[in-house]
Amino acid sequence: MSTPVSLSLLLPTLGASLPPWPFQPPPKPAIFQNTRPSTPTPTASGGAPDDFSHTNSEDSVLISKDSSMVSQLNELEQRSRHLNTTCFKDVLLNATYKGTERGRFFHSKVYNIGYCKVPKVGSTFWTLLFTTLDNGVDFGKKLLEKKRSSLHAGRYSFSSSFTYLKSAKVPIILPTRDPYSRLYSAFIDKSYLPIRINTNYDVLSIRNKSLCATDVSFQEFLQWILNEAKAGKSLDRHWAPIYSICGSCEVNAQYIAKQETFSNDIGVLLKKLNVSSEKYNFIMHTLEGKRIQSSLPGIVATILERSSGAEISRCMPWLEVTRRIWRSFQIQVKLY
Ligand SMILES: *[C@@H]1O[C@H](CO)[C@@H](O)[C@H](O)[C@H]1NC(C)=O
Ligand SMILES: *[C@@H]1O[C@H](CO)[C@@H](O)[C@H](O)[C@H]1NC(C)=O
Ligand SMILES: *[C@@H]1O[C@H](CO)[C@@H](O)[C@H](O)[C@H]1NC(C)=O
Ligand SMILES: *[C@@H]1O[C@H](CO)[C@@H](O)[C@H](O)[C@H]1NC(C)=O
């Protein structure tokens, strides 16, 4: 059974980004040959298999007798070791990209665990998770009722910094996602959808703003990112390597949560943290909740609003904007 991450929790503040989706990279040649941006290949097929299941009974939070739990904990350790060894390999040490603009970090004081915030990797969900961890389920529920925009703007008692978490050697949760799917998703959100038209002018090196920059191919987008990195520029956090945002090789990276096995990984992590079954059930329930319908209109409205400026409506008819929105949903979201 595949368990898509609850859409509503991953959805953007005012079109900042579309939700991650259970992604299987399409055969790459097909994408690279597809240089027409107007028809990106829909790839919203099956998600990663999720054979982890839990019951809602009290005992489910105990890890001791559960052998699948043990193997999942081993898997987590294995990921952390893999990261650690990779950190000392040439390929990273010699990496061309030296940008070090750190992301924001969370720190649960109650459980002494940190998290590195990466755009597009379920950040709304993590805010909810940390609220629930430190302030309890009731606060989590209140947060769910708030508007998404206020949710992102809020300052939280668990806000922290790279510098602090590093020096205190706090165990950190690092999010990861298949880099190809992360880049493709960023492309759909920031280039294909006309909400950040300035990026497209940069990608196509168009200086003359009376020309239109609405048709960028994925290949052009990738090439532009590579050129920016080679030129020593700091990349946007939506496509900068996660290790540069999180300082993955400098922090105490104990838990690596993969986008592809998200709810599974969160379940294991919560058990490992020994959270109460009340918190566990609330968080897991929220993660699996289906509230797609209630959030889609908000996203559509946001994208339409963002693309209603003269510089976009001049270049792209309204009908084409709506077509691209629909297309992006087909790509990003599993629509039933
Ligand atoms: C990472 O590797 C270094 C050197 O190989 C080792 O000293 C350190 O204990 C390792 N850290 C973790 C968290 O495994
Ligand atoms: C990394 O850099 C070192 C020293 O400059 C060099 O000896 C090594 O071959 C490089 N490794 C790779 C994979 O480029
Ligand atoms: C910009 O493009 C428009 C339309 O092609 C053209 O008329 C104008 O001369 C160009 N401006 C510059 C500064 O090149
Ligand atoms: C987990 O938490 C419970 C109380 O919530 C406590 O009794 C138990 O000792 C804890 N287990 C571990 C391994 O910390």
Question: What would you say this structure looks like, in words?
Answer:
Residues 25-57 are annotated as: Disordered. The chain is an alpha/beta fold and 336 residues long. It has one domain (7-22, 66-332). Helix content is 49%, strand content 7%. It has 17 helices and five strands. Strands 3-1-2-4-5 form a five-stranded mixed beta sheet. Strand 1 (105-108) and strand 2 (113-116) form a beta hairpin. Helix 5 runs antiparallel to helix 6 and helix 13 (262-272) packs antiparallel against helix 14. The model is unreliable at 1-61 (pLDDT under 50). One 2-acetamido-2-deoxy-beta-D-glucopyranose is lined by residues 90-91, 94.
Secondary-structure content class: alpha/beta
**Into which percentage range does the β-strand content fall?**
5-15%
Mean pLDDT over the residues? 76
Distance between the termini: 15 Å
Topology pattern, helix = H, strand = E: HHHHEEHHHEHEHHHHEHHHHH
Q: What hetero molecules are in the model?
A: 2-acetamido-2-deoxy-beta-D-glucopyranose
Number of helices: 17
Report Rg: 20 Å
Largest sheet: 5 strands, mixed
How many β-strand runs?
5
Portion of residues in helices? 40-55%
Q: Output the strand order for the largest sheet.
A: 3-1-2-4-5
How many domains make up the coordinates? 1
Uncertain residue segments: 1-61
How would you sum up the global shape?
globular
Biased composition (Polar residues): 32-44
Signal peptide: 1-17
Pfam families: Sulfotransfer_2
Family: Belongs to the sulfotransferase 2 family.
